[in-house]
Write a structure and sequence with these properties.
The complex is a heterodimer. Chain A has helices at 2-8, 10-39, 56-59, 64-96, 100-111, 118-129, 134-141, 155-179, 183-191, 196-207, 209-224, 228-233, 241-250, 255-278, 280-283; strands at residues 42-43, 49-50. By secondary structure, chain A is mainly α. Chain A has one domain (64-283): MetI-like (MetI-like fold, Orthogonal Bundle). In chain A, β1 and β2 (49-50) form a beta hairpin. Chain B is α/β, with parallel strands linked by helices. In chain B, strands 1, 2, 3, 4, 5, 6, 7, 8, 9, 10 and 11 form an eleven-stranded mixed β-sheet that branches. In chain B, α6 (195-208) runs parallel beside α13. The chains are: A mainly alpha, B alpha/beta. Chains A and B meet through α4, α6, α8 and α13 of A and α1, α3, β6 and α13 of B.
Chain lengths: 286, 353
């Protein structure tokens, strides 16, 4: 019996280890390895991949034109993250401090849009923002504007679409973070004659940092590589990293360069994550 | 708390999948009963009724999947999505795909309707004898415009550079078409391969960009109808459909001429159901089905017997059937070989500005 159990115990541990390892290899390392391999190859004239090794694709990343696209995408992603934080915080606070029953209601309302395809929801914004769309009809009806405003296919439209798409990713981690703050701390602040503003500034906001951090990462990284939103709401005007990668794969059929761009995108995200995590925002969280 | 974490994970999964769930790739190992034919075609070429009646008459199932540009078709077929049987490349792309060995050689004895082709669609340079591809629908690229705002019929592509229509112009989101338009406007062939001509065209397009509302190949008809744009670089068919919704929409083909195109039916070399695929092609090319197709989709049929049976509002609509005298000014798009790299680069530069 004794002999038996000493053998049985380590088995589940090594099993879960290998299962996790296999999972990582199959769904993370293997695809990433394929992309890396392709990024080091050459393109065929009509697309496809010629297995001639080269660093040319990475050299092309230094092109100023590509730099402009990366900088633009980083700006858009940063602004999206900032707006999501500003808009998301009051909502998250309200949900976190609501009664159990209402919390479920609010959370369900935040979730419901996810039952519809992201593409369809983004296209709905086309219908809202276009010249005879909801916003412009309203402005004309109320007599605020006499001509429809050009809203669709502008940077503003892309920004609105990105904030709309990724706001829940900011709100949910914030709810988790705020729920962890004991309400007694807020009462204590008031007892010490803090105004509402001072209470938020000195108590709730600093303690919500882990939520801002997690939400920021969840919003920033997908908006950095966003493709559908700039494509549909930006009218194909201003290229972003996501649309550039799509173009390399489906229009130019330059898979090796598209793969190198994907690695450039990952590298950019990693570097930015590293830099921000060393600032005051990241430090206490780590 | 774990409920919320679960919710976050779930949302991540939904969002991750949401973006790319456009097409379920056909599985290669289908059981043979009933046979399934995989048809890969343009997004505005599908009429469910036509497909359904083929399914009913042959006792097969047809699975339709769609693409929105020739480049996308080639990229997906090259990426190994070889489960498709029948595909619909345009003229020059049919040539490229045949050259790459992606298309099967056709047995014309099984496609008798090949005899009914419009004369100007036979003997085309990319496949003179219909060895690999048979013209199916055809048309032109021109300008769709709103006559309430653009009161004079556009006679030149230069109208797309007219500042008075700034912010109310849309261009196709198609690299060869847009570059080709600029080359024609400059008086060159839309198949030019000289780097300095491509540079000139790029400069002209960059100068135009502040006036352009959007580069789109899918939404321009809706933008015309809603009044968002008043001039659209456009394929004829969608403009013809827009006319039905908004009678002030018209279509013009500029004097400099532009692209004439035909989308062709072809069978992939990797297809395991070539006989059924060719039967399907013959079905689509037959007079009765072709007539219904043109009525529904408002594209001109390659079957020469169709035109005279169409109602006059379709037959005489230049967005569907261009007038005979314009045909001589139109140019077929051809493969530009190595110069495609210059086109790629010029297009990306245009989109960066």
């Amino acid at each position: 019996m004794r002999h038996y159990s000493s053998h049985v115990f380590p088995l589940p541990v090594s099993f879960s280890f290998w299962a996790a390892g296999l999972f990582l290899c199959l769904f993370f390392l293997l695809p990433l390895g394929v992309v890396l391999g392709v990024s080091l190859a050459s393109r065929g004239l009509y697309g496809g991949v010629q297995w001639i090794g080269t660093f040319e694709n990475y050299r092309r990343l230094a092109d100023p034109m590509i730099g402009v696209i990366f900088v633009r995408s980083i700006l858009f992603a940063s602004l999206t993250t900032l707006v999501c934080a500003v808009v998301g915080f009051p909502l998250a606070y309200m949900v976190a401090r609501a009664s159990q029953r209402w919390q479920l209601v609010w959370l369900t309302l935040v979730m419901i849009p996810f039952w519809t395809n992201f593409l369809v929801r983004t296209y709905a914004w086309v219908l809202i923002l276009r010249a005879d769309g909801l916003v412009n009809s309203l402005l004309l009806q109320l007599g605020i504007e006499s001509e429809p405003l050009p809203l669709l296919f502008t940077d503003l439209a892309v920004g609105v679409g990105l904030v709309y798409g990724y706001l829940p990713f900011m709100v949910l981690p914030l709810i988790v973070a705020i729920e962890r703050i004991p309400p007694q701390l807020e009462e204590a602040a008031y007892d010490l004659y803090a105004s509402v503003g001072a209470m938020f500034r000195h108590v709730v906001l600093p303690l919500s940092k882990p939520g801002f951090w997690a939400g920021g990462v969840l919003v920033f990284i997908p908006s950095l590589g966003a493709f559908i939103t700039p494509y549909l709401l930006g009218g194909g005007q201003k290229m972003m990293i996501g649309t550039l990668i799509q173009q390399e794969f489906l229009v130019s059929r330059d898979w090796p360069f598209g793969s190198a761009l994907s690695f450039g995108l990952m590298g950019t995200a990693l570097v930015l994550w590293f830099v921000v995590s060393r600032t005051s925002l990241g430090k206490d969280v780590q | 708390m774990s409920f919320i974490c679960g919710v976050i994970l779930l949302m991540g999964a939904v969002l991750g999948l949401g973006g790319c769930s456009e097409s379920s790739s056909p599985s290669q190992s289908g059981s043979p009963e009933p046979p399934i034919l995989y048809y890969y075609t343009w997004s505005d070429y599908v009429d469910p009724e036509i497909v359904a009646s083929f399914e009913a008459s042959r006792g097969v199932r047809v699975v339709v999947d769609t693409f929105s540009s020739n480049e996308e078709l080639l990229a997906k077929v090259q990426a190994g999505m070889t489960g498709y049987d029948v595909v619909v490349p345009s003229d020059f792309m049919a040539g490229i795909m045949a050259q790459l060995g992606l298309l099967a050689e056709l047995d014309l004895a099984q496609i008798p309707h090949v005899q009914d082709l419009e004369p100007h669609l036979t003997n085309l340079p990319f496949d003179p004898t219909q060895r690999f591809a048979i013209p199916y629908l055809w048309g032109t690229v021109g300008i769709g415009y709103n006559a309430k705002v653009v009161t004079e019929v556009p006679t030149s592509w230069e109208v797309l550079w007219d500042p008075q229509y700034g912010g109310r112009i849309s261009m196709l989101n198609d690299q060869r078409e847009v570059m080709g338009l600029a080359l024609r406007a400059l008086g060159h062939s839309l198949n030019s391969q000289e780097p300095q001509l491509i540079q000139q065209a790029k400069k002209k397009l960059i100068a135009q960009k502040p006036l352009v509302k959007a580069y789109t190949s899918e939404q321009f008809d809706q933008l015309l109808v809603s009044g968002e744009v008043v001039l659209a670089h456009a394929w004829g068919g969608p403009v013809a459909r827009a006319m039905r919704e908004n009678p002030s929409i018209h279509y013009a083909i500029p004097q400099e001429g532009g692209t004439i195109w035909t989308d062709c039916l072809a069978v992939l070399a990797s297809s395991s159901k070539k006989r059924l695929a060719m039967d399907f092609m013959n079905y689509l090319l037959g007079e009765e089905v072709a007539l219904l197709t043109s009525k529904r989709l408002l594209f001109a049929s390659a079957n020469r017997h169709v035109r005279n049976q169409l109602p006059p509002d379709i037959r005489d609509n230049i967005a569907v059937y261009p007038p005979q005298d314009i045909l001589s000014r139109m140019e077929w798009m051809e493969d530009v070989h190595e110069a495609i790299r210059d086109y790629d680069r010029a297009w990306t530069e245009l989109k960066v500005h």
